[in-house]
Amino acid sequence: MSFIDATRKLTKERSTTSDQLTQIHEDSRTGEELVEKLTEFGLSYDEATIFYLLVRIKKSGLDWISGKEIAQIAKRDRVRVYQVLQKLQRLGVIRANFERPTGYSAMPIEAAIERLVSIHEAKLYQLTSDENKLKEDLKNATPIVQVGRKVGGEEQNKATMSMFHGVSGIQHLIRNSLVGNSVKIIANPDSIDYVLSTIERSPEKPISAEVLVSGSERDVPDLRTISGDLQFKVELSYIRGHFPTFILTGNQVLILFYTVENYKPKPLSPKKSRLVMLHALSVSDKVYVEEMHQLFETLWQMSSQKRKPVLLQESNKQEDKSP
Questions:
Q1: 283 and 211 belong to one structural domain
Q2: Residues contacting 222, CB < 8 A, separation 6+
Q3: From CA 93, how far away is CA 110, in angstroms rounded?
Q4: Peptide bond into 101 cis (omega under 30)
Q5: Is 246 helix (H, G, I), strand (E, B) or coil?
Q6: Residue 321 CB-density burial (10 A; 0-12 exposed, 13-18 middle, 19+ buried)
Q7: Domain annotation covers residue 259
């Protein structure tokens, strides 16, 4: 056989082998779950993919394959494939021969998996050994001596803006803002019932509340329809328009975000929609709080149908005594 014939034969055999390996890779796509499982043993996705490919190649009867061929079959960048092969060698799950080009082969499956497990066991043993020392070191960490930034002569160390989510968290935020404060509230027909019921259910009440309802006169609730458990002075007024819902205290502004959804009402209930609270934004910036109080006072002076402060518990008692 001439040299040319021998070269053609070798080229044909190599081409046939490459076609077979490409088919193996196509079949390996069905092993995505195995690749994901291998990542749980500490391999990256690329490492698990190449290792699984080498396992299937070895099962096909081919013991050794070059990195170039692996890159072609896996349709991956050759440089990246060689990096992965070196990492798999260090982990002890594949081996390489000393031929040119270098051939690669998967270690026996039992040995490879046991090797990955042993690596995790060694890490766990080391972590267990260092656990107590790490705890003590963190407890004895040196505190940072930090001088707070000062604005207008006052120390500013707290975040001036925070977003809260979830119904229970928002209700807790509202109730905490009420304790010992005289609050000013801007509500609208959608939110007024929610705001007043939240205050009503709060274990600690504010000193007083000025409630400005945006909308029309018919949107202002009757104070006497509210439970007599409230023990603070409330003054309500309304202003035409539709404003967002705010709760103002001396040092923060709560902005409530919600949606209104339709629902099947209870028997004899006139309500066919309900408010669903989404978020609450708490702003404690001093300048912003002052500006919001100025805005409230301006709107309050523009509002209509102001009602004198009423101590709700006393008003209900008086109503009970009336003939």
A1: yes
A2: none
A3: 10
A4: yes
A5: strand
A6: exposed
A7: yes
Interatomic CA distance for residues 262 and 236, integer angstroms: 27
Provide the 8-state DSSP code for 106: E
Two structure tokens written together for 240 = 């035409």
Count how many Cα atoms sit within 13 Å of the Cα of residue 218 in the half-sphere of its side chain. 0
**At residue 72, does pLDDT exceed 50?**
yes
pLDDT digits (tens, 9 = 90+) for 123-167: 888 888 888 888 888 888 887 765 445 544 444 545 588 888 877
Mention every residue, 6+ apart, whose C-beta is less than 8 A from residue 128: none
Same domain, 36 and 102: yes
Q: For tokens 């046939």, name the residue.
A: 16
Query: Tell me, what CATH number does 82's domain have?
Result: 1.10.10.10
Range of the domain at 316: 158-263+271-321
Q: Look at the block and give the residue holding tokens 């002569």.
A: 153
Mark whether 209 and 113 lie in a shared domain.
Answer: no
Q: Is residue 299 located within the same domain as residue 170?
A: yes
Distance CA 239, CA 256 (A): 19
Polymer length in residues for the chain: 323
Please tell me the chain's helix, strand, coil percentages from 3-state DSSP, rounded to the nearest 5. Answer: 50, 20, 30
